[in-house]
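From the methods appendix. Each design record in this collection lists the tokenized structure first, followed by the designed amino acid sequence. Records were kept in a plain field format so they could be parsed without special tools. The example shown here is representative of the layout used throughout.

RECORD:
FOLD TOKENS (1290 positions):
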């Protein structure tokens, strides 16, 4: 027997690799295969039709039959049962029949001429949700502290119901370590309390299959102490269950369930193991779990119901053993052990048997390897018939859990059933043996495209079928060599795997399937794509203030052929459906953020091949809520304890609390900072001052800002006391030579400590035997002591005093009485000349008693008496240099060379300067001269140039000569060889021959003294063919900032000129240098500080300077600026704006003036015509009569509404208006006539000069007046006044 087993095992090893499970194409003959069936335990809903599934495939298509409870089920005899076409699925109509009539064990059979397959035994049971039995629950009265169990005992249903406890309002009853529900549904109280009393403990049972809920009658519980029980015994005796007659004290735990010290239970492999231990005791015990025989499986273990239930999922054989639960409180502990034995229904070890497809003459094996506890029994059937009752087949051999096939022949096809069973269940599996001769065929679609992400595995399928089993070979593109090596993995089903796909793996692949009957090829394509990656954000957390906006970015890099879609999640759920959430193409914006928006935001980028995600946490912060519940405790005279309750910190921890106070006694309505405490504290010990009425408030600060102020605390008043401190900042300084002003910083109201605050001021002269003088000062912060000696030291002290006493002894401060002007002069004053522009002044210090004050320093007064050159005028303006502190020397810079100077020295203090020292003098040596004043270039003939110049303004010594340098300049602005001429000191012109190879020259002229050469003045000249000389400007001279040297390049500016126009001066030039930044700067030519103003050229070669003032001369520079704002080149000239305009315009020839004069003449003519018409109408003006009688009955006023003249007639003959003349100055002189133009003025307001000339202005229009006492005056238009008005306008 043992030898047979070894032979069978060896045969399996030899032949096993020949048997590969293949999917047979449905166009080929094959036995039936069950593809779908109902579950083994099938619970049906009695309200719906019964559907029992049985689907199978095969070639030819199988037929179906059923058995019920082991007996053939005649479908055709029951009109309520139908079988679906081309299917074995049964549909039972139970609308007119009870469902329990169809309860039982059903099995489906599918057969064709190649074999028979059978389904599992399908047990049909009707779901049940029976009603709760009618019962009356009497109230339960228990003593406080005892344990209690409220039974549920729901009706047995199918499947069992889910039990839970609720109240009348359908709210779940709260559960805790003390009160919890057991696995069977009962409600356990480890100990009861008075608050457990209620009349609506209701147990509910929910039947999931029928979706119904049933309710148990409410249970009433009354928890009383012993006295209450005695008082109510009679009232509830007849209808109440009484428990725990003896009083209950605190006690150690005991177990309510399970009872006893040990128990056992059984669980099946793969199921869920639930063990519970519920203990009673007072105080409420805590329950813990352990495994006696090993460790708890941490990944599969959980503790439920407040640690009272131990739950282990996916139970395996390793979970077999002893478990211990321990209940413990402060009075002791108790243990209970549970022995768990693990059993197992049959389960497959390596999967169910697989179908065999064999070619004639091939070998194969069917394996049915399973296990279980206890070990299961394995039986074989063939086409639903026990194999021992099946026809004999020499090629088949059964060995326990395997069937070995050797040299199979056509016609040996059949379906074999393997049944594995023990007391806990069974396994049934169908596997067919199909004997076929079939050439290979590739089942994978032709030219299928596989897309994979770079660095991921790539699997290329070559699903094939053939009998015998085809061999699969892979090729790349058009390569003739097969694929092999470590870069590829070949699977038994023909699939080739590239473990780490790269871009170079993209391309076309070919698989070839071959067997003895033929060959089949197929092509597939592989595309390797770049991965989708979200650009990672630096910040994993965003913090935003409530009410503001926040933006989450989600930028992605992806393969250009893939199109990602973006999805946003909040806390792994959908975003809220609100308009505040705005999803952009690569971002999420939340506007007006609220606190509910806080959470985890995830951006998911999906493509058809891969995805990537990024998560950012959003914290919504806001300034904290104000503290509440301010309370004052530990109150003393000088301190108080302030406590408060912090407000909501809104996700931003409170950093500190700020405490402020209001002094309603001295400064009502004003709050002051008192102290700060860390944000972790809610108490502050506050030091207080006397005589203050305190009210406190508290602010909380977090990262967002300060909260609003808390509500004020109650007022706390401190008692008055003597001052604790004296004034600070005590000083003693005299304002006059005979006084001492004592000042201090007064105490604040908070520092006064009581009413009647004043200051005790004491002083004494700092000398031996001096006594203190004292003065009380109120409502002031200074006191003046008169009659003091000049600048004497005093000791000073100021003490604070109020109605309750004096402050501490004050510190003594040193002060000085007032200063007076010094009376001493510096001695031994002398000068040491260092060079032509610098001298050192030395002196002896003035004695301290002669200074009569605080020494501030010394002042040196010096002035240039005259230059030592005949051309230099005298300069008597004095300069002053101050040297602070106790100096005895000082330097005088910036002196004029070759000059005589006078100087003296004064000492000065805080009051002023002392008398001068005797005046001394010194002389400066010669220095380099200034540039020549001017340089002019003139052409005398075709072969020479004449240069004229003027000596320097500043000789700075004796001029010993001039140096002239000149160079030709070609058209490329390149300089030729330099020539140099030495000229005598008395020369002011020179004639130079013009070389033929150049028409333009650069000249540099400098003067020199014995000290050296001074700066040069430059000029350029261009010579035309006609012999005319063109210079940049005949009056332009250009003193550089420093002397010109040979190494310095010549200026690139040429032809620098200016012209005066109506709106400014136009500066023009030619420039051939490389610098791009060109500008013009100008300043008023003066001896003072030069205030240069800048105008950029902006790429042009001219700039107009506007706003120049007439009568002033301006110094103008054209500057080329290099890097770092360095002036590399500049050209300088002077521009003088004349006081009279440079161009006089003849106004008589201007068109506007001619037009204006014509308009005036026309207006005068019209006015004369109007006057003539008025006179002819009788509108004469009897001036004399009007003077005699101011009112005229016939005189008509102007209309009130439009202020126009109305026509009137004069019944009397009036004298004509006498002629008048218009003087050249535009005034009207009164002649001898009695008629007066003033009579026709407004209210007689006309005025005359002493010579009788009229000075009133006539505007040419009339005005309305409201005059109730007399008639209004009329005013005739006057051509003379109109002319005057026009003249004044012009």
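DESIGN:
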């Amino acid at each position: 027997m043992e030898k047979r087993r070894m032979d069978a095992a060896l045969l399996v090893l030899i032949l096993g690799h020949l048997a590969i499970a293949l999917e047979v194409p449905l166009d080929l003959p094959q036995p039936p295969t069950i593809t779908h069936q109902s579950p083994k335990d099938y619970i049906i809903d009695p309200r719906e039709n019964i559907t029992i599934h049985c689907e199978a495939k095969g070639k030819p298509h199988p037929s179906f039959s059923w058995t019920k409870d082991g007996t053939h089920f005649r479908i055709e005899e029951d009109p309520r049962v139908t079988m679906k076409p081309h299917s074995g699925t049964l549909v039972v109509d139970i609308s007119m029949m009870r469902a329990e009539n169809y309860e039982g064990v059903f099995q489906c059979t599918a057969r064709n001429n190649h074999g028979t397959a059978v389904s599992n035994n399908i047990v049909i049971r009707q779901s049940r949700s029976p009603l709760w039995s009618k019962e009356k629950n009497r109230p339960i009265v228990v003593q406080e502290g005892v344990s209690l169990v409220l039974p549920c005992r729901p009706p047995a249903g199918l499947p069992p119901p889910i039990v839970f406890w609720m109240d009348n309002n359908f709210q779940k009853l709260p559960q805790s370590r003390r009160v919890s529900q057991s696995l069977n549904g009962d409600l356990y109280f480890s100990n009861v309390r008075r608050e457990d009393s209620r009349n609506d403990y209701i147990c509910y049972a929910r039947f999931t299959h029928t979706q119904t809920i049933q309710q148990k009658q409410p249970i009433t519980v009354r928890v009383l102490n012993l006295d209450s029980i005695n008082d109510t015994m009679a009232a509830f005796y007849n209808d109440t269950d009484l428990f725990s007659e003896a009083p209950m004290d605190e006690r150690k735990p005991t177990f309510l369930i399970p009872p006893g010290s040990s128990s056992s239970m059984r669980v099946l492999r793969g199921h869920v193991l639930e063990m519970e231990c519920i203990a009673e005791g007072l105080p409420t015990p805590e329950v813990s779990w352990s495994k006696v025989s090993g460790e708890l499986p941490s990944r599969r273990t959980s503790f439920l119901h407040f640690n009272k239930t131990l739950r282990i999922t996916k139970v395996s054989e390793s979970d077999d053993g002893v478990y211990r639960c321990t209940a413990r409180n402060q009075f002791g502990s108790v243990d209970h052990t549970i022995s768990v034995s693990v059993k197992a229904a049959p389960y497959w070890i390596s999967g169910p048997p697989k179908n065999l497809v064999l070619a004639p003459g091939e070998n194969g094996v069917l394996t049915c390897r399973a296990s279980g506890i206890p070990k299961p029994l394995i039986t074989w059937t063939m086409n639903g018939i026990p194999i021992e009752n099946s026809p004999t087949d020499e090629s088949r051999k059964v060995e326990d859990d395997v069937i070995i096939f050797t040299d199979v022949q056509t016609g040996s096809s059949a379906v074999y059933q393997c049944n594995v069973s023990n007391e806990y269940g069974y396994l049934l599996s169908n596997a067919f043996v199909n004997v076929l001769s079939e050439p290979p065929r590739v089942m994978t679609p032709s030219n299928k495209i596989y897309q994979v992400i770079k660095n991921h595995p790539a699997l290329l399928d070559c699903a094939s079928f053939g009998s015998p089993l085809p061999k699969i070979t892979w090729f790349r593109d058009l390569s003739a060599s097969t694929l092999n090596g470590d870069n590829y993995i070949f699977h038994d089903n023909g699939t080739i795997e590239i473990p780490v796909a790269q871009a170079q793996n993209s391309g076309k692949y070919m698989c070839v399937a071959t067997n003895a009957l033929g060959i089949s090829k197929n092509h597939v394509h592989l595309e390797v794509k770049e991965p989708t990656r979200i650009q990672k954000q630096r910040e994993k957390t965003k913090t935003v203030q409530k009410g503001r906006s926040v933006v989450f970015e989600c930028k992605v890099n992806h393969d250009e052929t893939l199109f990602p879609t973006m999805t946003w999640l909040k806390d792994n759920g959908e975003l809220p459906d609100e308009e505040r959430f705005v999803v952009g193409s690569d971002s999420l914006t939340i506007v007006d953020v609220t606190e509910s928006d806080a959470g985890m935001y995830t951006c998911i980028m999906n493509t058809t091949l891969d995805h990537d995600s990024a998560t950012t946490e959003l914290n919504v912060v806001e300034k904290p809520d104000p503290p509440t519940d301010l309370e004052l405790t530990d109150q003393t005279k000088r301190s108080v304890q302030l406590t408060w309750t912090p407000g909501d910190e809104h996700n931003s921890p409170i950093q500190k609390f700020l405490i402020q106070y209001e002094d309603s006694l001295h400064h009502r309505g004003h709050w002051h900072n008192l102290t700060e405490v860390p944000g972790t504290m809610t108490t502050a010990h506050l030091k207080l001052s006397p005589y203050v009425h305190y009210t406190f408030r508290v602010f909380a600060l977090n990262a967002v800002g300060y909260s609003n102020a808390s509500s004020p605390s109650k007022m706390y008043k401190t008692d008055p006391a003597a001052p604790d401190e004296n004034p600070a900042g005590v000083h003693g300084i005299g304002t006059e030579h005979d006084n001492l002003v004592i000042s201090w910083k007064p105490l604040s109201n908070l520092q006064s400590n009581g009413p009647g605050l004043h200051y005790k001021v004491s002083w004494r002269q700092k000398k031996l035997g001096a006594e203190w003088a004292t003065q009380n000062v109120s409502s002031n912060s200074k006191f003046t002591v008169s009659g003091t000696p000049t600048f004497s030291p005093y000791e000073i002290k100021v003490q604070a005093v109020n109605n309750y006493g004096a402050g501490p002894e004050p510190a003594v401060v040193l002060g000085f009485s007032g200063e007076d002007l010094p009376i001493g002069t510096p001695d031994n004053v002398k000068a040491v000349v260092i060079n032509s522009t610098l001298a050192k002044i030395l002196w002896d210090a003035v004695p301290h008693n002669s200074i009569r004050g605080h020494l501030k320093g010394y002042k040196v007064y010096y002035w240039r008496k005259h230059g030592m050159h005949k051309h230099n005028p005298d300069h008597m303006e004095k300069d002053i240099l101050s040297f602070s502190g106790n100096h005895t020397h000082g330097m005088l810079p910036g002196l004029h060379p070759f000059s005589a100077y006078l100087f003296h020295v004064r000492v000065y203090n805080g009051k002023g300067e002392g008398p001068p020292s005797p005046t001394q003098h010194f002389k400066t040596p010669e220095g380099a001269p200034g540039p020549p004043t001017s340089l002019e270039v003139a052409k005398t003939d075709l072969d020479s140039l004449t240069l004229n110049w003027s000596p320097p303004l500043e000789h700075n010594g004796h001029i010993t000569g001039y140096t002239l340098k000149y160079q030709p300049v070609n058209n490329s602005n390149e300089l030729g060889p330099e020539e140099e001429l030495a000229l005598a000191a008395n020369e002011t012109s020179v004639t130079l021959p013009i070389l033929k190879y150049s028409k333009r020259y650069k000249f540099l002229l400098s003067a020199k003294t014995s000290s050296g050469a001074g700066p040069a003045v430059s000029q350029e000249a261009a010579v035309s063919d006609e012999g005319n000389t063109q210079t940049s400007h005949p009056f332009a001279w250009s003193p550089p900032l420093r002397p010109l040297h040979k190494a310095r390049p010549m200026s690139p500016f040429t032809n620098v000129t200016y012209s005066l126009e109506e709106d400014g001066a136009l500066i023009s030039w030619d420039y051939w240098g490389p610098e791009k930044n060109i500008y013009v700067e100008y300043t008023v030519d003066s001896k003072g500080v030069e205030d240069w103003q800048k105008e950029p050229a902006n790429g042009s070669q001219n700039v107009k300077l506007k706003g120049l003032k007439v009568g002033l001369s301006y110094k103008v520079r054209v500057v080329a600026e290099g890097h770092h704002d360095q002036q590399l080149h500049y050209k300088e000239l002077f521009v003088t704006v004349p006081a009279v305009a440079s161009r006089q315009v003849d106004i008589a020839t201007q068109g506007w003036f001619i037009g204006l004069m014509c308009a005036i003449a026309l207006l005068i003519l019209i006015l004369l015509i109007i006057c003539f018409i008025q006179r002819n109408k009788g509108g004469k003006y009897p001036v004399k009569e009007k003077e005699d009688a101011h009112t005229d009955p016939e005189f008509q006023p102007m209309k009130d509404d439009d202020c126009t003249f109305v026509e009137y007639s004069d019944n009397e003959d009036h004298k004509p208006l006498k002629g008048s003349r218009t003087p050249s100055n535009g005034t009207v002189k009164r002649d001898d006539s009695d008629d007066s133009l003033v009579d026709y003025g407004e209210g007689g307001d006309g005025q005359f000069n002493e010579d009788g000339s009229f000075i009133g202005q006539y505007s040419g229009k009339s005005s309305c007046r409201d005059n109730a006492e007399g008639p209004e005056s009329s005013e005739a238009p006057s051509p003379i006044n109109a002319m005057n008005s026009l003249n004044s306008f012009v």
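APPENDIX NOTE: Residues 45 and 127 are 6 Å apart (CA to CA).
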